[in-house]
Amino acid sequence: MEGSVYSVFIDIDGTLISEDNSGPFKDDISGIEKARQRGAKIFLSTGRSLAQIPKQLADASWKDGVVAAGGAHVILGEKTIYHNWAPISVLCEVAGLFLETGKKCGFRGDNHTYVVNRNAGIDSGKLPVMSAADFSQKYVDARVSMLTVDHSIGNKERALLEKYFDIYPQIPHIDFFIKGECKSKGMKLILDTLGLDRKYSVAIGDSANDIDIIENAGFGIAVENACEELKEKASWISAAVGDGAVVKALEHLGLC
Fold first, then answer.
1. Domain 7-83+181-252, what fold?
2. Alpha carbons 201 and 255: distance in angstroms, whole number
3. Distance (Å, rounded) from C-alpha 218 to C-alpha 231?
């Protein structure tokens, strides 16, 4: 990496953290720290909203920034350089429909997650939405950049959500990101701000919401447990999450 500065964008779920919420793993973190010591810039690139990033990762000293909420929230250092959130009127409209149909919907924000049809046990720590007007009266400072719903939603709920959000089916839920936002857009903003060459950018991920950044990065790497669609787009396949997914990708590129 002599003569160049590499920027590494690392997904969280399915890449740094496994499906059972194990991780981040010691070998991966060690590799990340070595890469950063050698001059690489390290960024989290996640579909999670800021409030849902694990504290261990949010407070990591090796992190140079974050692309969160599928690209709707971009942080460089400690400063937000881009943020887009759903209008309160949209949140009220969605909340009203889900209260009507009885389906569950999570509104993921900067500081809190809000839930329609909340399960008190499973959703401990998440704020309940009891009325369609809650976001205009009770949670007026909510900055929600994405939604999460169950696969059991019907056509009525899906049609409303797709007016305002892009759909990314996951297991066991479906993520909805604000239309026009994507991880590669966040990556480009960071690269342009820092004056870094896209040719030396690296994206590591596992799911459908990583496809655009894998395609647009200089080096797009899928982990072994990634969806087949992402693997087809990647330039290299690393190990599975928990088996050195990140460190082996960094070693492959000679970054650690």
1. Rossmann fold (3.40.50)
2. 12
3. 16
